[in-house]
Amino acid sequence: MATAHEPAHWGTTESDTVEHVDYDFDAAWAARRRRRPRVRILGRMYALPASPPAKLILFAASAQRRNPDQTIDPDTVVELLGSVIGSENVTALLNEGLDLDQLADVLRYCMDRMKNWANQGEAAAPNEGAATANTPSA
């Protein structure tokens, strides 16, 4: 019979009320959501996502594979920044006079800030692939 320290099957334990865990992702993610980084753009405050949206990460990975020195077209910059602060907010900023260089600056900063923020967890997550005493054996 499985105990709280021996998974009954992959991904779950016999009891959902186990008091001791090695790392609580739920708590870390909740804490990160509560303390999101904020930026001021043209006098307005924007709370950035706790971590970069998947769309941003996938685009960056794809662009890196294709040609890391390639410039990004303005429509793509608008779309990517929209995934960070909202499309309506990007449209409002453009209507208020934000130019394309400023738009690119904002996107670069937000990407760097979210990346750094996501890496500053309360405690480091377990090493990917690292075995622990609680790792189920094959």
Architecture overview:
There is one protein chain. With 138 residues, the chain is mainly alpha-helical. The protein is 46% helix and 6% strand. It is built from 5 helices and 2 strands. It has a two-stranded antiparallel ribbon with strand order 1-2. Strand 1 and strand 2 form a beta hairpin. The chain is globular. The chain starts with 24 loop residues before the first helix and ends in a 20-residue tail after the last helix. 9% of the residues are buried. The model is unreliable at 121-138 (pLDDT under 50).
Give a quick summary of the entry.
With 138 residues, this protein is mainly alpha-helical. It has helices at residues 25-34, 54-66, 74-85, 87-95, 100-118; strands at residues 38-41, 44-47.
Shape type: globular
Strand content: 5-15%
Total helices: the number is 5
Query: Can you count the beta strands?
Result: 2
- Strands of the widest sheet, in order across it, are 1-2
What integer is the average pLDDT? 75
Tell me the Rg in angstroms.
20 Å
What structural class results from the helix and strand content? Answer: mainly alpha
Largest sheet: 2 strands, antiparallel
* SSE run: HEEHHHH
Stretches where pLDDT is under 50 for at least 5 consecutive residues are: 121-138
Key phrases:
mainly alpha, two-stranded antiparallel ribbon, 5 helices, 46% helix, globular
